[in-house]
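Q: Can I see a sequence and its folded structure?
A: Here is a first one.
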Amino acid sequence: VQLQASGGGLVQPGGSLTLSCAASGDIVRVKDMGWYRQAPGKPRELVATITRAYITNYADQTKGRFTISRDHAKNTVSLEMNSVQAEDTATYYCYAVVERRGKGWSTFDRDYWGQGTLVTVSS
C-alpha cells in the first residue's frame, strides 16, 4: 500500500492551496484518513482527519480555514487550505488507516503515511 501526496508549493499569505493524497495497492477498505504537518524544529501535529462516515475533526489552528474531504471510489483525501498564514508553512503528510487482507478470510488494519509535501507561505 502506498500513499502519494501532491499539491504542495509556494503560496502567498492569504492565498489558497489544495493538497491531494491517493492510496493505492492491496486495499480492502480505507478507513480514517487525514493530514498532519511538521514545521522545522517542531513535532508533527494534527491538521484534520475524516472518517469513512465523513465525520471531520480539525485542529484549532486550521478550523474555519481548511476543509478536508475524501472520495471513497478513488481512495483519495484532499485538504483545501484557504487564508493561509506564515504559520502554516510546513511539510504536510497524509495518513490513512487501511484495511488489508490477512490469512483466509481475515483482515487487519494498518496505518500508512504519505511521503510529505512541502507548503511554503511567503510573499
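Q: Show me another, different protein.
A: A second, unrelated one:
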Amino acid sequence: QLQASGGGFVQPGGSLRLSCAASGRTSNNYVMGWFRQAPGKEREFVAAIRWSGGNTAYADSVKGRFTISKNIVQNMVWLQMNSLKPDDTAVYYCAARAGLIWGLIRSSSEYYYWGQGTQVTVSS
C-alpha cells in the first residue's frame, strides 16, 4: 500500500517535497515511480528510482528541477520539486511494482500499486 502526501499550493519558482510511504513488504527488485495527471490530460511519467541501487530517471520536463530519493529502512520515497512552474500543476501519484524492467518505467500501465494522489497547484 502506498500513501502519498506533501502537495499544496505554491507560487511559480517555489518548492515542494512530496512523500510516498510504502507499507507492507518491499523487496529489493521494486521500482518506485512518480506520475502526474493534469485536468484533461493523460497521466504522465515524472520520475522513477530503483529500490535497490542508484538508478534514477526523469521526464525531460522536470530534469534538473525535480529529484527523486528513497530511504529503504523507512520505506519512503520523496520527490523534491524546485523551480516549480504553472505547468507542473497536477495530481501527483506514487506507484510501485516489483521486478519492473527499467526500460518500461515510463509506462503507467506497468505499475501494479498506486497511492491516492496529492494535489500540486502552482499559481501566482
